[in-house]
Amino acid sequence: MGRAKKVVLAYSGGVDTSVCIPYLKHEWGVEEVITLAADLGQGDELEPVRKKALDSGAAQSLVINAQDSFIRNYAFPAIQANALYENRYPLSTALARPLIAKLLVDAAADYGADAVAHGCTGKGNDQVRFDVSIAALNPDLKVLAPAREWGMSREETIAYGEKYGIPSPVKKKSPYSIDRNLLGRSIEAGPLEDPWTEPLEEVYLLTRPVDNTPNSPEYLEIGFEQGIPVSINDTRYDPVRLVELLNERAGIHGVGRIDMIENRLVGIKSREIYEAPALLVLIAAHRDLESLTLTADVSQYKRGLEETYSRLVYNGLWYSPLKQALDAFIAQTQQRVTGTVRIKLFKGQATTVGRKSDYSLYTPDLATYGAEDQFDHKAAEGFIYVWGLPTRVWSQQVRNS
C-alpha cells in the first residue's frame, strides 16, 4: 500500500507510535520513517525515547525542545484570551497539538518527506487537531493515521510489535491514559470512565490533596505586561520558568484540579481529570487585571469571543481564518493590560485579593462613599429617566391594551 516514500511520524515512545514504524514500512510500503518527539516539558527522559525509535526501525529519530515556543506562542496567547473550554478546561493538552503539527510540517520540509503521520485513534480529539492543523499549514502534505485504520486490539498491537522486535511493556500498565506537558496533566480511562466514581489520589501528581496543604496562605504577586505574565513577586522569569514555578507553588496548596464531563468534538461525552495549576491561576489573574484596565463594553464583548476562541482551539482550528481574526482583536485589547495581581493560595483555592495598574480605569474619587466623593448625584435622576424611558413606554402600552 504505497502511500508515501518518506514519512515524519509524531513519536511518543509508547506502544502505538512504536508499532506505527514497522506498520508503515511493512504494510503501507513506506521506505523511510523519521520520528519526531517534541519536548514540551512532559518530564520524561527523551534520550531513551529517541533510541527506542531507532531500535523500532526509524531511519532517523529527532528530539526537539519546543518548551519556550509552547509557552510563548501558544499558552500565553490563550491566557490573553482567558481560554477555558466549556468554562472549565484551560486547554493544557489541546494547545500542544498545533505546535506538534507545525514541527511535523517543518520537519517534512527539511527532510523532503512527502507525508507525516501520527498514532491517534478514531475516537479522540487529537486526530482532528493534527489533521486539520497540518492541512492548514501545508494542504499538499499527506497525513497518515495507521492506528485509526489498522483495527488491532491492544493485545494484537503488542504482538505485532513483538514480531518486529519491539518489546512489550514490562511493567504493569496503569489503567489510566495520561498526557503531560509543561501546562499540566490530563487523566482519563480506567475507573474514571464511571462518572460517579471519585478519583483516587493516585491519579494526581502536580497537586496536593487539601488535607495535606499548608495551614497558612501564600501570597503571590503576578506581573503582566500587555496581557503576558512576566514576573512573580517582582522577580522576572523566562516563560518556561515562570510556569514551572507557578505550577509548583499553586500545586503545593492543592490548586489546579478539574473533574469534568467534557463534550468531545467527535460527539462523545468524556469524563476528564485535569491538573493545570499555573494555567488556571494565570487565567484568573489575567481576567481580573482586565476588569481593572478594560472598558465595560470591551470587557463584556470579549467574553463572548473568548468562548468562541476556546472552542476553536479545542476543535483543532488554531490555524483557521476565524482564529486569526480573533487573535487580532485580542491583541488590540491587551495594549493596556499591564499591572500586578495579588493572589492568595490556600486550601485548594486561588483567590484574587488585590490588583493595581498604571492604566487602571478605577477612579477612587468616583467610587468612594466617603467625603472625597466627586460623583454628581444630581445627574443620576436625568440619566435614570432617559435610561428607563423605553421600559416606561412599553409598560404604559401593555397596561392600556
Tally of domains: 3
CATH class placement of the largest domain: Alpha Beta
CATH homologous superfamily annotation of the largest domain: Argininosuccinate synthetase, chain A, domain 2
The count of β-strands is 14
Q: How big is the Rg?
A: 25 Å
Write the H/E string, N to C: EHEHEHHEHEHHEEEEEHEEHHHEEHH
Distance separating the two termini: 76 Å
Q: Which stretches of 5+ consecutive residues score pLDDT under 50?
A: none
Percentage of residues in strands: 15-25%
Proportion of helical residues: 40-55%
Characterization of the model:
It is elongated, with a radius of gyration of 25 Å. 42% of the residues lie in helices and 20% in strands. It starts with 5 loop residues before the first strand and ends with a helix. The longest helix is centred in the last third of the chain and has 22 residues, at 379-400. With 401 residues, it is α/β, with parallel strands linked by helices. Strand 1 (6-10), helix 1 and strand 2 form a beta-alpha-beta unit. It folds into three domains: 6-77 and 91-163, Rossmann fold, CATH 3.40.50; 177-356, Argininosuccinate synthetase, chain A, domain 2, CATH 3.90.1260.10; 364-400, Single alpha-helices involved in coiled-coils or other helix-helix interfaces (Up-down Bundle), CATH 1.20.5. Pfam families: Arginosuc_syn_C, Arginosuc_synth.
